[in-house]
Amino acid sequence: MPLALSFGAMGTASGEGASWGPGPHRTPDVPATRDTDPVQHAADEAARLLHADGAIVYLMDPGGETLRWAADAGISNSPERAWMRSMVVPLGVGMFGSALADRSVRITDDYPNDTTFQHAWMTDQVVKGTGIRSMVVAPMLDGERRLGALGVYSTRLAAMGEPEATLVRALADHAAATLVAATLLRELTRSREELARRADQERTLREITGRLAVLREPTEVLQRIVDDALRLLRADDAHLTLLVEGTDYLVPAFLAGGTDEATRDWLASMRFPLGGGINGLAASERRVYWTADYLADERIPQTDEDREVAKRMGLGAMAAAPLRGPQDDVIGTLAISYREPGDVPADDQELLQGLADVASIAVANSRLWQDLRSSEQRYHYLLRHSPDVAWQVDRQGRFTFLSDAIVRLSGRPMDSLMGEHITTVVHADSRSAPEDSYRRISAPPFPEQTYRFFLSDAAGRPVPVEMRAVADIEDGEYRGAHGIIRDLREQVRLEDDLRRGAADLASARERARLAQELHDSVTQALFSMTLTTRSVELLMDRDPAAARQMLGELRELEREALAEMRALIFELRPANLEQDGLVQALRTHAAGIQGRVGLSVRVDCAVADDRAPNDVETALYRIAQEALHNVVKHAEARNVAITLSGSRDEGFRLAIQDDGKGFDPSVIPAGHVGIAGMRARASEIGSSLMVSSGSGHGSKVEVVVPPQRLLPSEALTQG
Amino acid sequence: MVTGPSEPVRVLVVDADRRVRQSLAGLIRVSDGLTLTGAVGDPVGAMVALEGDPVDVVLIDPRLPEAEVGVALLGEIRARWPRTRIVALAVVEHLGTLWDEPERLVVVSPASPELLVETLRDRSPNGSRSTVHPWQDGGARPTG
User: Fold this and answer.
1) Which pLDDT value is given to residue B134?
2) pLDDT at A578 over 60
3) Are B115 and B31 in contact (CB under 8 A)?
4) How many A×B Cβ pairs under 8 Å?
């Protein structure tokens, strides 16, 4: 069976993986090699007490399969000693391997020629080179556990006997006990340290978390987290990067560690792309990413800049944890680095992620605070600058909140309104709507209310407003209400303007139509007279009788022209309405049209007292005029009936109906503003206008004047 | 029937204004070389008259009362009685945009009855292609 001998110096002799030694970064104060002090002491004592030429101690590797040199005494500096110190001896091989395998003391009188144990070429070479002949080896045991073996040798043959064996065994037992005690002590110390460290970590995390609750500004917390990461993880440098919103790169925002000022400034100007460098990898893979040696790690994509950072900071081992945002997004990273290469154990990675999580909360909190703050500011700005009054009342209807707009709207100081009942702002003349609405909103099902009323300003003047109110309900009970009050002054003004504009437009159209009618009737009359005069000229010599007859026609034309002129002048000056009355004015107008275009226009009046206030008569006249104009222009009608009906008590009704081709009232071609003008006229006198028609069924325009508009005008101004 | 060169020119008057219609009819009746076949006030009347008795000239004020109605009537006459001349009175400004064959349209000023009669008598293809309506400047009436 080939012997698995190897030299420990070939890469594993540093104690890596040994249970006695912690990692290089975490515990730089603890020696990196195995604790050999009691072992060396055992070797020295054994050599001295036995007056031996030398003593050697081998200790078991943690795997329990091989032995490794631990101490020697009495061996002069030689190639053999170097060999011996670097050898890895399998259990069961050589004197040491055999004694430990058997858990018994072994004595040999002549090592090179002793066939009772298994030899190995390398151990034999060392034995030969050192001149070892006789040897006693005693196992170092901790109960069943093999710790190692202590051997004492002589260059003489058969120099070791039972007494030596007993002594070596005693020394080996003592060394084993000391070793166990030292190990236990060290473990105790380490576990105390570990406990303290854990406690420190926990306290730190608790403190940071505690601060999170009270701090709105994350800067302090984040710097603290970076400082704590550096301290708790015994790192040389630490930094926290944040993802710049809307980009795909991280910028270092907080730094801690031994880096000099210039390097810090320079680092702060760096940009780490997502997916590149260790920060980028941790961010893009959303997990802790670590490396034993940054520059040598091929997994990490590195730009020239990354390498420059690494060299300048003297990066060895490094780890980075993502800062995970509330929407499972990554908002940055927390990274630690060491000047030396080495592992970053799982515990440390976990702690780093824990700190990163706290940092995420700090950043997310801060953003939420910022959002909240700006939302509050926005809310306050809107509330302050809104033209609407925001208000709230308690269960009794007393103001508990009013926005500043109430001062502008009512002209009353704010403190004169707070705590007052909502009805104190209502104008005395419009109490009913707010009171009704208040009754409704305060009883189930607490319906939302929208209504208009007049607010009373500081001088007691009415201000038109619109109120929207929503009940505040708790556990099904009415607790008060809130809503807005909107100033309608501008809207009322605009509506008035609009009405006036429509009326102006209607007047302008009337004027244009009159100009056209003047042109049509008078020019056509003059043209007819010119033609007839020429006919008279032609007939005068040829047929004087016919010429005379034609002169009669000429006179008739002149009469008609004069009548039309009068009618048109009357239309231009509707003040004559006042004198003649609406019905007579309509008859005159109808006669003019009848004469001019041959359309039969009948005017019926079924009202005993047909006089109405001036503005009503004028509006009705203009509407009839426009309606007739439309009939002449579009209807191809033969007959039109204008009817005034109703009474003072029930209101007047004016209808203009024709027997023409009709039209679809919902499809009025663009540019035809006639109906809009009539509506504007009707609206001016508080009346409604209806147009009904259908293809082939003629058309009808109706205006209904409410009775209150038929009262004398001075009575109206009170409303 | 349509007359030959030596016979009086047969004229149909189409005008919505009763007085103008009657005055035009009167003048044509007493003018030499013209025969009045009818005087109508609307497009339907014009079509009925033409179908019953084709003419040499239609004297028309296209505002019936809308110019668009007159133009539609003119198109119909042109299509069905291509040899009939059309003499238009008081042409509105945008008639040109509605009427795509200006050479077939003779526009005459109503200011001069003599010129009007002369135009009606003229059998040459372009007739007396006058003129400007004396009231047309600023007098073109709105139609909408």
Assistant:
1) 31
2) yes
3) no
4) 72
Helix axes A162-214, A37-49, angle to 10 degrees: 170
Taking the CA atoms of residue B101, residue B104, residue B110 and residue B114 in that order, the dihedral angle to the nearest 10 degrees is 160
A535 touches chain B (CB under 8 A): yes
Of A516, A531, A532, the CB nearest to B142: A516
Instruction: Please check the confidence at residue B135 and state whether its pLDDT lies above 80.
Output: no
Which residues of chain B neighbour A635 with C-beta distances below 8 Å?
none
Assess A600–B contact: CB distance below 8 Å, yes or no: no
Interface residue A630 vs chain B (CB under 8 A): no
Which residues make beta-bridge pairs with A469?
Answer: A449, A483
Find chain A residues with C-beta within 8 A of B27's C-beta.
Answer: 531-532, 534-535, 538
Quick one: CA torsion of A143, A148, A152, A155, rounded to 10 degrees?
A: 140
The closest of A170, A117, A178 to A139, measured between CA atoms, is A170
**Which candidate in B15, B24, B27 is best for mutational testing of the A interface (most A CBs within 10 A)?**
B27
Average pLDDT over residues A476-498: 87
Contacts of A533 in chain B (CB under 8 A): 113
Q: How far is CA B124 from CA B27, B34, B121, in A?
A: 22, 15, 9
CB contact under 8 A, B17 and A539: no
pLDDT (0 to 100) of residue A22: 32
- Is A550 an interface residue toward B (CB < 8 Å)? yes
The band of A13, judged by pLDDT with boundaries at 50, 70 and 90, is very low
Location of structure tokens 């009007």: B116
- Nearest residue of B to residue A534 by CA position? B113
Q: Tens digits of per-residue pLDDT, A77-113? A: 678 888 888 888 999 999 999 999 999 999 999 999 9
- Distance of alpha carbon A127 from the chain centroid: 78
Q: Are strands B57-60 and B9-14 parallel, antiparallel or unpaired?
A: parallel
The closest CB to that of B65, out of A533, A538, A632, belongs to A632
Mean pLDDT of all residues in chain A? 83
The DSSP string of A144-205 is TEEEEEEEEEESSTT---HHHHHHHHHHHHHHHHHHHHHHHHHHHHHHHHHHHHHHHHHHHH
What the block records as the tokens of B27 is 């003048």
Looking at residue A673, what is its pLDDT?
A: 59
pLDDT tens string A505-558: 777 777 777 777 776 777 788 888 989 999 999 999 889 999 999 999 899 888
pTM: 0.40
Nearest-by-CA chain B residue for A549: B26
In the structure encoding, which two tokens stand for residue A674, read together?
């006639």
Q: How far is CA B63 from the centre of its chain?
A: 11
With CA atoms as reference, the chain B residue closest to A673 would be B144
What is the distance in angstroms between the Cα of A680 and the nearest Cα belonging to chain B?
Answer: 20
State the amino acid at position A639 in one-letter form: N
What distance in Å separates residue A642's CA from the closest CA in chain B? 22
Rounded to the nearest angstrom, the minimum Cα separation between B122 and chain A is 19
Task: Write phi, then psi, for A610 (nearest 5 degrees).
Answer: -90, 5
Q: Which residues of A588-621 are buried (b: 16+ CB within 10 A; e: fewer)?
A: bbbebbebbbebebebebebeebebbeebbbbbb
Taking only the tens place, the pLDDT of each residue in B102-113 is 555 666 666 688
| Chain B residues with beta carbon closer than 8 angstroms to that of A660 | none
pLDDT beyond 50 at A27: no
Tell whether ipTM is more than 0.85: no
Question: What's the pLDDT score for residue A56?
Answer: 94
Q: Which of residues 104-133 of B touch A (CB under 8 A)?
A: 110-111, 113-114, 116
The Cα-based distances of A16 to A84, A184, A390, A433, A548 in angstroms read 20, 20, 73, 90, 144
Q: What's the mean pLDDT in A572-577? A: 62
| The pLDDT of residue B109 | 60
